[in-house]
Write a structure and sequence with these properties.
The protein has helices at about 5-15, 30-35, 50-65, 100-110, 125-130, 145-160, 170-185, 200-210, 230-235, 260-270, 275-290, 300-305, 330-335; strands at about 25, 35-40, 90-95, 115-120, 135-140, 160, 190-195, 215-225, 270-275, 315-320. By secondary structure, the chain is an alpha/beta fold. It has 2 domains: about 5-50 and about 170-335, 3-Layer(aba) Sandwich (Rossmann fold); about 55-160, Rossmann fold, CATH 3.40.50. Helix 1 packs across helix 3 (about 50-65). The longest helix is centred in the middle third of the chain and has 17 residues, at about 170-185.
Length: about 325
Amino acid sequence: MLPTALDIYDARRRLATHLGPTPLLQSPWLSSIADGSVFLKLESLNLTHSFKIRGALNAALKLIESIDKPSAFAHGASADKKGLSPPALTVVTASAGNHGRALALAAEKLGLSCVVFTPATAPETKKNAIRRHGAVLHGDCEDYDTAETQAREFAESEGATYISPYNHPDVIAGAGTVGLDLIEAMPSFDVVVVPLGGGGLASGVGLAVKAAGPPVTIVGVEVEASAPFTLSLEAGRITAITPRTSLADGLTGNLEAGSITFPLVRQVVDYVVTVSEDDLTRAMRGLAAEEHLIVEGAGAAATAAVIAGKASAPGQRVIALVTGANVDLPKWLFAVS
């Protein structure tokens, strides 16, 4: 079932006691480059340093509601570290790292057990955080697509609940609360620029913003090394690609067959652009030098599109989402040096 704007408002109600709005700051640096007014939505400062906590926590809370188990979040209850919880209380996911970290934290706080599959190449800072929250980590998958396949197979074999990082209505609804933040923080804006990996964030933000009424352009940003939406939208169906290595590890990989994000992105995203590795490097370097922000490659994709002149026209009010800060220090230093 496709989520709706009403589901996003329901997600905000569910998340209200756990998460607050993240900062929205004007960037004189980017405003000068774009010849407009550019604002940065700093999801990199959210809990777990990524927007992913919104969707992961909403899905976990919704699961708790569905099995009629009182929420233990406020009491700090955690899963039994000696073994997995009963299947109904075990959540499984595949992740490039940020969603896995977010779901692991949600599970720890809600008394669920969590199993996360990641590529072997996922940043160590993300994998270490997953372990710290008590999740079982399978961190040696060949690539993201393999991690997704193995995670689904594991969940099915164990009778556990699989929570996709993007192809899940409650994850999309949680991510969409970013859009509600924007609507409430700014009375009017022209463009929202959103990194585009699996499409969950773009779908949720697009649903929320488009439902608010005034016309707003939603721009999705893929990396040249992995652009499944660009090809799939051209083909009119989900089409497989061969992802290449990118600074934006969180945006690489194929779309799951039948993903609900494909029709949603087609509905709410006005156009999709791609950025190069050089664009990402310039964005990460600029965010560090001008805004004093540590941002991972995927988190800098929207900023990269603004710098490359692909996201707006002169005079527009533009919001670029800065979606994550979980990057290994050597990789960040290499990018910004």
